[in-house]
Design brief:
alpha+beta; Aminopeptidase
Length: 162
């Protein structure tokens, strides 16, 4: 089953393409993360430094499935799901948007698209962990139906897919 690309206008009218990540996107994605605003990092991700970024992206390429948000040919967002090795049918989610594309509805569209994809793939649940002060992300997750399962320094959230 393929991921169906989505084109939509963000809140300020930019045409955004959400599509499956391809190997040819690797350099552009590394570039996005090399220029990622340090204040937008959460729980040590995305990693800092080219070598660490390359290693992390290689891990996601091998173990997960990723989608990207693109504007005028430039990757501005990345969402990855990775199967939970201990819990069959469960995937962990991580999403990152460059600063100038945050708060424009792009993250919500990406999360909704991956929920739909995960349901079609037969996954039972999506889980995630975020910083409990990352209110923008938490708002998106709640809007998409995620519930908090544990709150400490991190917020653990999940969405059953039945």
């Amino acid at each position: 089953m393929e991921f169906e690309p989505i084109v939509f206008k963000d809140k300020i009218g930019r045409n955004i393409l959400i599509r499956a990540y391809e190997k040819k996107d690797r350099e552009a994605l590394i570039n996005m993360y090399e220029n990622y605003n340090p204040e937008d990092r959460s729980l040590g991700l995305p990693p800092v430094g080219r070598k660490a970024i390359e290693s992390w992206i290689s891990y996601l390429e091998e173990k997960g499935f990723s989608i990207v948000a693109e504007h005028e040919g430039k990757i501005v967002g990345h969402l990855a799901i990775v199967e939970d090795g201990k819990n069959p049918g469960v995937v962990d989610l991580a999403i990152y948007l460059t600063r100038e594309y945050q708060n424009q509805g792009i993250g919500t569209q990406m999360v909704k698209a991956i929920i739909d994809f995960a349901k079609k793939k037969g996954y039972k649940k999506i889980t995630l962990v975020t910083d409990r002060l990352n209110w923008r992300a938490i708002r998106v997750y709640k809007k998409c139906g995620f519930q908090t399962t544990l709150a400490s320094y991190e917020l653990y959230m999940e969405l059953p897919l039945n």
